[in-house]
Design brief:
CATH topology of one domain: Neutral Protease, domain 2
CATH superfamily of one domain: Neutral Protease Domain 2
Strand content: 25-35%
Number of strands: 30
Strand order of the largest sheet: 5-4-8-2-1-11-14-13
CATH architecture of one domain: Orthogonal Bundle
Radius of gyration: 26 Å
Number of helices: 11
Helix content: 10-25%
Structural class: alpha+beta
């Protein structure tokens, strides 16, 4: 790249300065994603290998990460994201030692002769004290805890900050390692490491340590490329999918909580059947349905979602149920399999995973219970800023409660507008079609175009109003004569189906900006079941 040196110098000047003091482990400023740096836009990440020795006593990690990538063009600088708290000691590119420097939360690797297009293998050796999570999983980092018996219990969370909190990476949601990842984690003997994919081997080594080698062959978000450590026991079960395939279920549960493990797996089996009904077969059939107990609320870590609710369940229609456990599990489809190209479209994974909770209520308690949960979502909407604010938006600017509940309520509206016969098959298509899953990424436009195509109508105005503004539908009712009313919707350029209660019962009308006439001896009631975010004005 001709201008890569100039770009690198600009980055140095613009990068925030962070004092490398031992006591400074605050990363509250840190976000993931945003505008993709030109030096990273030419990289296609293929594989990560993360090999670390975890020193629990000193809360340190030491080891290396190897990043295999493809360059689309030549460059004199490779750029990776990496937290300033950890110190890089050596870097080799294609087995040749390379000069480098750390600045802010970046690593710059330079080559006066240029790195050529094609395959590059970058090994980065490093160590130190990683950031400590102050409010996991929302404010991420490492959690160095102990269980009730005093055994070490370590968890990592980094969705908001990205995997750079503990390993060098290209920290952008639009590039996952197509060929998967290996985690080779060494811990004190007697402790167990829970990780993504399948456990390849466990090796006892000198100094009373044990190394766990986890491997996934699937593409994976860097914030899901994490591990947990504890005095775990593994409780197993086998699940047969909706398509007749079998996959192991594994719960990495604290020894002290082993008695609760099988019940949790049975709930996950029930939840899997609900999720498969609406979204297709469990996405990671070649690996596992994994669950790890952690000392914080759960997260959607791929093939090893985490759980921290201490086995407290609510009762729904006589069945035990956990909101957190179900929501994080729904992310195996929405986030891990269907992945937003940019954090600007985070509502897709969070909103649909939240909507899945309403579908669980529908399966367990019927349509009335579904309606009750949807109403709860609607009542919580803040509407302070749009949930899609453009493109190339970072995780911090995107993240609000509305990406969950307004995103979920939008799916409810979309269900009504398109009808069940269109909505549910299209939702499953979004979750199963190759163009939206695994190595491919999605945006709001992709979702809009799919539902528009399947419904046979242009739904862009509805998507724009709900997702790109804080507006509500403005319905206007005017009495124009004795028992005669006009009804119209004023601020959307598409026809909408609307239920209207009149003195003779409920009828559905197609409303536009042109008035529709209603005869009724009582004032009409528009959208009585609340399918829309709306304002109703009587004139």
């Amino acid at each position: 790249m001709k201008n890569s040196i100039l770009i690198s110098l600009c980055l140095i000047l613009l990068a925030p300065a962070h004092p490398l003091q031992a006591q400074d482990r605050d990363i509250s400023y840190m976000v993931s994603g945003g505008k993709l740096n030109p030096l990273q836009a030419i990289m296609d990440i293929r594989h990560y290998t993360i090999a670390l020795d975890v020193d629990i006593q000193h809360q340190q990690i030491n080891g290396y990460t190897t990043i295999d990538l493809l360059l689309s063009r030549s460059t004199d600088t490779l750029l990776f994201d990496f937290v300033h708290l950890l110190t890089v000691t050596k870097i080799t590119v294609n087995n040749t030692t390379s000069p480098f420097y750390q600045k802010g939360d970046y690593i710059f690797i330079t080559n006066a002769h240029g790195f050529q297009p094609g395959k590059q293998s970058v090994k980065i050796e490093y160590g130190g004290n990683p950031p400590v999570a102050v409010n996991p999983p929302w404010a991420g980092g490492f959690s160095w805890k102990t269980d009730s018996n005093g055994n070490p219990w370590v968890a990592i969370n980094c969705q908001s900050e990205g995997g750079k909190v503990y390993f060098p990476c290209k920290d952008h949601p639009g590039d996952e390692p197509n060929e998967g990842a290996d985690l080779i984690i060494t811990v004190p003997k007697g402790l167990v490491v829970a990780g993504p994919g399948l456990l390849q081997e466990t090796t006892n080594i000198k100094n009373d340590k044990t190394t766990y080698h986890w491997k996934t062959n699937y593409t994976i978000s860097n914030y899901c490329l994490v591990f947990n450590i504890g005095k775990y026991k593994v409780v197993n079960r086998t699940y047969t999918s909706i398509d007749g395939h079998t996959v192991p279920m594994q719960f990495y549960v604290l020894e002290e909580d082993t008695a609760y493990a099988m019940q949790a797996l049975l709930l996950k089996e029930r939840d899997t059947r609900i999720l498969e009904k609406y979204f297709g077969e469990y996405p990671w059939m070649k690996e596992k349905i994994g669950l790890a107990e952690v000392p914080n609320p759960g997260m959607e870590h791929q093939t090893m979602i985490t759980y921290g609710d201490k086995f407290r369940y609510k009762t729904i229609a006589g069945q035990k149920y956990s909101d957190n456990l179900f929501h994080e599990y729904a992310h195996e489809w929405w986030a891990n399999k269907v992945t937003n190209k940019d954090w600007a479209h985070m509502w897709i994974q969070e909103g649909i995973a939240t909507y899945a909770e309403a579908l669980a209520m529908r399966e367990m308690g019927g349509e009335n219970m579904y309606d009750s949960m949807i109403l709860n979502f609607k009542m919580g909407i803040q509407n302070k800023k749009p949930i899609v604010q453009g493109e190339e938006v970072n995780s911090g600017d995107t993240y609000t409660g509305d990406i969950y509940i307004k995103g979920a309520f939008f799916m409810h509206t979309l269900r009504y507008v398109t009808g069940d016969s269109v909505f549910f098959p299209t939702l499953k298509e979004l979750a199963t079609a190759e163009k939206y899953t695994y190595n491919n990424f999605v945006t709001t436009d992709d979702v809009q175009q799919l539902f528009s195509a399947r419904s046979g109508r242009d739904l862009r105005p509805l998507f724009d109003l709900y997702l790109r503004t804080t507006g509500k539908l403005d319905f206007v009712i005017s009495q124009t004569g004795y028992n005669l009313y006009s009804v119209q919707v004023k601020n959307i350029s598409m026809p909408l189906p609307v239920d209207i209660i009149t003195s003779t019962g409920t009828q559905q009308k197609i409303l536009t900006g042109v008035p529709v006439w209603i005869r009724s001896s009582t004032p009409p009631v528009v959208d009585p079941k609340g399918y829309y975010l709306k304002r109703v004005m009587m004139e």
